[in-house]
Amino acid sequence: MVRFLFLLLLVGIVRVNASYSESHIKNLLGLESQLILNFRNYAKELQEKLRVIKSALAEYDEHVKDATRDPELYLSNPFSTFRLIRHMSLDWAAWQLKMEDQLGAEQLQMQQRLLAQTPKEIGLKIAAQRLQSLLKFYNLEPAFFLHANRNFLKLNPVDCFHMGEQLYKLGKYHEAAEWLTVAADNYTTSPHNDLVGVPHWRVYEMRSKVLRSLNKFTESKRALSTAISLNHGNQQLLEQQQQLELMSSSKELKDPLPDPVAVLSELQQQCGGESRQDITLSCELITNVTPFLELAPLRVEDLYFYPYVMLYKDGIYDREIQHIKNAFARCPSGNKFEEDGGISGCLIPGSYSAVIRTLSVRLQDMAGLDSAMDGVIILEYGSTNPFKPFELPHLNLMNLEDVEASAILFLNDVVLGGAVTIPNLDIVVFPQRGDALLTFNEGNFEHTLCPNVVGSSMVIVKFMFAREETDETLEMEQDYITILSDKLELLSQNEKLQLSLMDYVDQLQERIDVVKKLSKFLRAPLQTAKGREKEFLSNPLNSFSLLRQMESDWVHVLTLLEKPIGQEQIDFLREMHSKRPHLQGVRDSMAAIHRIKETYKLKAWDMANGLLKGVQYNAKLSVLDCYEMGYLYYNASQFTRAEEWLLTARHLMAQSPTDPYPMLGVTRSDISSLLARSLVAIDNFSHARTVLLDEPKFRDAAEEWLDYFKANIPEKVRNEYLMELDEDYSRLCRSNYKANSSRLSCSYKRTSNPFLILAPFKMEQLSLDPYVVVFHDVVYSSEIARLERATEPLLEQATVKSSKTHKHVVSYARTVHGAWLPHPKLSQQDNKLVARIRQRIKDMTGLRLDSAQYDLLQLLNYGYGGHYASHYDFSNVTSAKYFFDDRIATALIYLNDVSSGGATIFPKLNLVVKPERGKVLHWYNMRMFSYDYDLLSMHAACPVIIGNKLAMTQWIYELDQMFIKPCREPPKHRKNVYF
């Protein structure tokens, strides 16, 4: 606005004569008054911005002081950690935008900023070309995308309109007509369509233009008539109608362009699933290629004999897939490559991890070959065009003449498209997660990967020949919920950002002081002239001063207004952007808060004020924290829970209406809108109406908004982060029940090993059926401290075994990080310490731990909200043909005290065991005499509320015990033929 007024002033000064009349001077004086008023408003805006930032800093400073006094205690509180993660992930981005928002000349600068962010026409054109390319390749109709039963495949009529418009501009009239027909036939009246510039009549207008280009004048006139009926009196449409009438009546009228006939290439037919390959080939278990496969056979389908092509099923475990994806995400720049068409790759050497080496050996076992390239090549692609992976430049650098066999291992399912073909063999494979396509190439490298309609694919490529590769160390991903060092680093980054914001405040205050001083100087002549303007202007000195000030001083004022404030601090915020937590970290943190609240039946208002299980903590949730929780529940269709959090957010905002929440992207009307939508979704219309009437933004049209919310209730969805918890599980986690039977006892155990005569274990019986005991003071504090320091860098997300697939998968039923011990990255002394602890387990349990296959302890670190839902430790995968060595017993070692939460419970025994440093919980998973599964051994880990829970698990297997605890009677619930 200031720039606009100044330009007007310059134009006015240039146009008038050098000798100014009194009226001209008075006009200039009026303009001067307007400029000064605008300038004063600018100063007020600066002052308001400063006040809001100072208010935020005061709140942030309280949390920094709390954290500085005792960082570990502060970060052990789940609310503090959740608030820190959300604050770092979301708030600082909002502050960056607010700091970049230059005050003054708002309309011009806002428009410039929005234009910079608006997609250019070329981007929309490329997107339309790519979508049409996929549609044409797979011979799909536009209506397929409109009516797709999957949300991620679905387009709305407005999307179809823009597809037609872009194809029209590209001269693809037949394709444009198809899209516009779908848009017109399925158009629905919506308040959004007019806002985005696609009213109903415009769809028919564009359809008329396309049909006119195809010389289909009758249909074109019909479409244009429909457009006119929808927009009466549109002069532009009426003129088009006249032109169309003239064209259709012309004697040189051309024949309509015929519709093209789709002719699919052989590759298109194969990618679409058409194949003539022999379906009589075998499907079997491979056991005779290598000695290892005799013990662990793999299922394989023969696809072709000459050359030999096979498809192995379930060639990789889910936990290995996750490991591979993590390695790809951290790929060193020297090992990473990019190809045209959105293809990226990484060479992961075998030295990177045991998982890579194990996978390499497994692929060699599949091929029955002794030598192979070192490591694996990972490819990720979302290409909309087919491509041949073996002809990629980076893979072509290898000497393919020496390749005996190649493997393509698929790491994810492909929803639609994405088949792999070998055209000259007429082989088509629609791969599934874990499938491995193995080819004895014999010079045949024609494999082609078909386009993906949805998402991207990730595959492993491996050639069976020796090759030296480089080794690089990959960085581990940070975990802000469990790992203390990562949480401390996050706290440090937050403090640096707040210091940067304080520097910004200083510069803002300095600008305010300059503006006030300058405003006072420029206002002085007006104050002098007030009430005696004629006398003031009659003085040539005053007139000259006014003219000079208008012509010269305001140029410098404009320069001052346009000069950015705090550019160094803004650059620092941009630099810190990559170090902030990702959205996944925020979601994990919110899921942890959900588990704590629902397990312990806490109220959102109490949690927001730091009250947990009757204990008041020095930690609180902000309005933004509560709003984000409500937003999460709303998107998960858990509207009652969303209502509770949103009401809490609304009440908190009412207590502090001047806080800077609007600057961080959340206003009171945002909260009220989401709250009303949640209430409508649970049929609480009266409360929703009250909420809308109480909000100024919605008050005048409350009924219209209510009707709109009723007509647009979101579809029910299931959110894997917010799993429902069993009531028995929650009830026991909230209780302190401990068995107290006269048959139970506390004693010193001295009998299972001669050494125990000198150093017995303190043993407390908790249950006799099944056998559950606790040993006290088993691991020393010095040993625990050493283990904690040494193992923190090794922690990774723990997995569970799927009951359906018996594969290890990451699950929100078990939220814990773990490491297997002993570990090659630990020192010799640390691994010896692990061996000593295992020996103590043997001594106290009287059971053997001899099997080399199961000689590992699992160290576990549960962060806040960390839990494990009710489960059994036995796997129960024994079949009539295969005996599985299952877990007969478990020893769980607690390595620290937990302030609140984190108990181990046995729901069918009504037993609760609190974690205590150095204590070992031991129980049997099978019946002692029959080795039958004991269903009473079901157990679970309750969510940690405050701090972390550090523990170690040792599973004890049945075959090791066959000579010390023989089976005396056959089991009833196991199907093995040997019983």
Concise structural overview:
The protein has 979 residues and is α+β, with helices and mostly antiparallel strands. The strands form 7 sheets. Strands 1-2-3-10-7-12-6-5-4 form a 9-stranded antiparallel β-sheet, covered by helices on one side. A 9-stranded antiparallel β-sheet has the order 15-16-17-28-24-31-22-21-18, covered by helices on one side.
Q: Given the structure, what is the number of helices?
A: 34
Strand coverage percent = 5-15%
Tell the overall outline. Answer: globular
Strand count, sense and barrel status of the largest sheet are:
9 strands, antiparallel
Helix content: 40-55%
Q: What structural class do helix, strand and pairing data support?
A: alpha+beta
Could you list the spans in which at least 5 consecutive residues all have pLDDT below 50?
A: 1-22, 105-119, 278-282, 285-295, 466-476
User: In order across it, which strands form the biggest sheet?
Assistant: 1-2-3-10-7-12-6-5-4
Q: What value does the Rg take, in angstroms? A: 36 Å
Number of extended strands:
31
Q: What is the first-to-last residue Cα distance?
A: 90 Å
- What is the arithmetic mean of pLDDT? 76
What do these coordinates show?
Mean pLDDT is 76; it is low at 1-22, 105-119, 278-282, 285-295 and 466-476. Helix 6 (121-137) crosses helix 8 (157-169), helix 12 runs antiparallel to helix 13 and helix 25 (623-635) packs parallel to helix 27. The protein is built from 34 helices and 31 strands. The longest helix is centred in the N-terminal third of the chain and has 48 residues, at 22-69. With 979 residues, the protein is of the alpha+beta class. The chain starts with a helix and ends in a 22-residue tail after the last strand. The chain has a nine-stranded antiparallel beta sheet with strand order 1-2-3-10-7-12-6-5-4, covered by helices on one side. Strands 15-16-17-28-24-31-22-21-18 form a nine-stranded antiparallel beta sheet, covered by helices on one side.
